[in-house]
Amino acid sequence: MTKPCIICVAITGSVPTKANNPAVPISVTEQIESTHEAYEAGASICHAHVRNDDETPSADPDRFAALQEGLLKHCPGMIIQFSTGGRTGAGRARGGMLPLRPDMASLSVGSNNFPKRVYENPPDLVDWLAEEMRNYDIKPEIEAFDLSHIFQAAKMNADGRILGKVYIQFVMGVKNAMPVDREVFDFYRQTVARLMPDAEWCAAGIGAHQITLNEWTIPAGGHVRTGLEDNVRLDRDTLAPSNAALVRRAADICARHDRPVASCAEARSILGLRGGNR
After folding, report:
1. Strand partners, 5
2. What is the rounded CA–CA span in Å between residue 88 and residue 93?
3. Contact 123/161 with Cβ under 8 angstroms?
């Protein structure tokens, strides 16, 4: 397969801490350094949350601004994707960083269960976040935790709430949500191809399932997500020494399947982003 594979590195998240793995970057400075290493290893998208100094999740636009400034300086061309996830804020505070105009932002289009709570994405909030992304020329990355989210993304694309070619990510392995199941994964791919033939898709596996989804996705023609947000280990017994190590592992799988790793310019072109072919 000659289609370049986009590698997204989810650098921090809002759950793993240094107690889980000392390599998890918490401060903005640590995040910039860790992302730069991952960028040099082949990552073309940085998916980012920010944390307070005590490691608690933060929705502080100033921290997002500082992170964006550092990534623009040290990772030229890299696609910056901010999270609007529900752990870092409530209601419209989740989109407080969107006026910074990152290249992309995550958009969950429906609710689902998480390990100990409901991940609430009510329709009015989803519509507001989607509108803000349109206003600031930000491409949504649709995070699909359930089959219904694929159908909702297709509906929003058809009625203009999501513009252009859809980029959708299957999230599998979250406790109480969609498990890692090969037949479901294949059905997701088929459903996207049927409802949104020109869409690009990605897949993320949580915990030990990260490598499984990388292994399934790359030969199937999708793009991959890796990084310490989702998984802090290289294998059952070995902590990952860095985000870059997980990116290199994904790049090795690409090499095994004779699939090139997308450069930042190629990733921008594939996704129709600023700096690419739109």
Report:
1. 261
2. 9
3. no
Query: Which residues lie across from 79 on neighbouring strands?
Result: 45
DSSP string covering the chain, please? --SPBPEEEE---SS--TTT-TT---SHHHHHHHHHHHHHHT--EEEE-EE-TTS-EE--HHHHHHHHHHHHHHSTTPEEEE---GGG-SGGGGGTTGGG--SEEEE--S-EE-SSSEE---HHHHHHHHHHHHHTT-EEEEEESSHHHHHHHHHHHHTTSS-SS-EEEEEE--TTS----HHHHHHHHHHHHHH-TT-EEEEEE-TTHHHHHHHHHHHHT-EEEESTTT--EEETTEE-S-HHHHHHHHHHHHHHTT-PBPPHHHHHHHHT-TTS--
Strand partners, 119: 112
Residues near 146 by beta carbon (within 8 Å), at least 6 away in sequence: 110, 112, 177, 178
Q: Is the pTM of this model over 0.85?
A: yes
List per-residue pLDDT tens for the chain, 278 residues long: 789 999 999 999 989 999 999 999 999 999 999 999 999 999 999 999 999 989 999 999 999 999 999 999 999 999 999 999 977 777 899 999 999 999 999 999 999 999 989 999 999 999 999 999 999 999 999 999 999 999 999 999 999 999 999 999 999 999 999 999 999 999 999 999 999 999 999 999 999 999 999 999 999 999 999 999 999 999 989 999 999 999 999 999 999 999 999 999 999 999 999 885 43
* C-alpha torsion 216→166→154→112, nearest 10: 60
CATH number of 7-271: 3.20.20.70
Query: Where along the chain do its domains lie?
Result: 7-271
